[in-house]
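#lab-general

N.A. 3:47 PM
ok so I finally got the sequence cleaned up, no stray characters, all 532 residues accounted for. can someone with queue access submit it? mine expired

B.Y. 3:52 PM
send it over

N.A. 3:53 PM
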Amino acid sequence: MERNTEKPKKSRFGEILLEYGIINQEQLNAALKMQMQVGGHIGSILEDMGVLDEHALLNFLSKQFNTPPANLFDVNIDSSILKIIPFDKVKEYKVLPLRTERNKLVLAMMNPNDLTAIQDIEFASGLRIEPVIVPSSQMEAAIKLFLKEGYGIRTFSGSALREKTEAYETRVSETGAIDIRSLLRLVIEHKGTDLHLTAGVPPSIRVDNELKRLPMPAITPEQMREFADSILTKEQKYQFDRRKEIDFAYSYKEIGRFRMNMYRQRNSISFAARFIIEDIPNLKSLGLPGWVSDFALKTQGLILISGPSGHGKSTTMASLVDIINSNRKCNIVTLEDPIEYLHKHKKSNVNQREVGVDTDSFQEGLKHIFRQDPDVILIGEMRDPESIAIALTVAETGHLVMSTVHTLNATSAVDRIVDIFPGHQQHQVRIQLADCLLLVLAQRLVPKKKGGGRVLAYEKVINTYRVKNMIREGKVHQLRSLMQAASEDLTSIDQSLAKLCIDGEITKEDGLKFADNPRYYEDLIRLGGFKG
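B.Y. 4:20 PM
back already:
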C-alpha cells in the first residue's frame, strides 16, 4: 500500500484573509517578514500596517477561533473585577477579566484555546470561565498601561487606552524610525534603560532587562548612517572612522542624558544608548545598606564594584562619589569613558575627565594623577595592567580609589586583578591588593516580582584579617565556601537573592537565574532565610 507522504495543510489566519480577498499576497508576504523580525500575531501586524481595521480583525479572529469577540477599546472594567485575577496571571496568560455574570467570569484572551490558562484561572477565581477573543495588540497595550499606571487601582477605561495607543502610533508613524530624538523619547516613555539600533531589525528598547522590538519597519544600513551623521560631531566622526567604534555621552533638552556607543558589525553601523538618570540616587533608593557609606568616607584604600554590564555599577559609584562630595572637603578626580553622571561641586571639588576628550586613555590619565593633588580617584573601569598597577600604588599612598570590574561575583573580581598580570608579578600584586583593598561589592539587578523595574541583589567581601591572608596566599577561591556561613565580612549573592524572594520582591525563578549556588539558594528559601 502506497504511503501518503503529503503533509496536512495548516489553516493560517493570513491565508484565510487571502482566501476571502481581504489582503493580497504582497501584503501577506510583508506581514510575514515583519513577523519574523519582531514576532507577534499576524492579524495585529496587518492592523499596524493599515491593511486591516480593528473591526475586520475582530470578526476574523472570532470566526477562526469560533469565539465571541471583544474590543478592549470599547469597555470599562471596574477595579473590583480586575482584582479577581492577580496581575502576574494577567501577564503570564495574556488575559483580562471583563465582567461577571452569576457564577461566570467573562475573560478576554488572545488565545481562547489555552486550556491551561482557563483551568488555572477557574481554580484561582472559583468562577466558570467564558472566553472572548481580543487582538494581541490591544492586550499588549493594556498590560503595558497597567505596568505603567498600576493594576486594579482604578477603573480600566478602554477609551483612554485607545487615545494613548493612537497617540503612540501617530508618533511612531511621524518618526518613521528616522528621528533619533523621538526614539530616545520612547525609551523614557517605556521606562526602559537602553535603545538598540541595528540594521536589519526594528528599533529595540530594553525594559526590565528584556529587549523589546518597537512596532516599526526594520532599519536599513542607509538609515544607520543617517543616525551616525545626525549625532556625531566632526571630531567624533573622524575617531569613529579610524577606530570603528566610539563611546560618548549626549544630553537632549527635555529628554535627558544618554551614554552612547556606536560600533560596526557586518560592514554596517550599530548603536546603543543607555539612559542616565540626572538625579544621583542615594544608597537606600538603590537597595544598598547604609554601612556602604562608611567605606565611601574612608580616606585611603581601594573599593571595587563588580558585576555584568547593565547592572548598575556606574550608578553605585556615582552614589558613593555623591556621599563623599556631600560630607568631605577634598579634591575628587574621575576618569570616565564616557562621563555619565554630572556631579555638582558641594563640599568637595569634583573634576570629571572623559577618556578621548580630556585624556587619551585611562593609562595616560593615571600617569599624571599625582600632580592633580587628588584625595579621591574614580576610575571608570579597570582595563589593563598599567592602569591597575598605578591604581594599587595610589590606593597604598593615602588616597581613596574606586573602580569597576566586569566579573560575575566578588571573589572573581580579586582574581581578575591578579590574573591580568604576568605570573612573575602576581605575588607582588597579591600583597599590594591585600594591603589596600577595603571592599568588593558585586551586584545584580533582578526583575521585580510585580513588574515595572528591577531590584538590586549584592554580594560583599570586606577585607578583614582573614580575607587579607587568603588574598596574600592565593586562596581567594576558599572565600566562596566561607560565604555560606554569612558573617560581617562575607555575604553571598545567594543570601541576598533568597531574602528578596522571601520578602516578595522577586520570584524564585528569577532569583535562580542569578544564583551562584542554586541548591543553596533554594535551601535558604525553604528554611526561611539565613538563620546565622
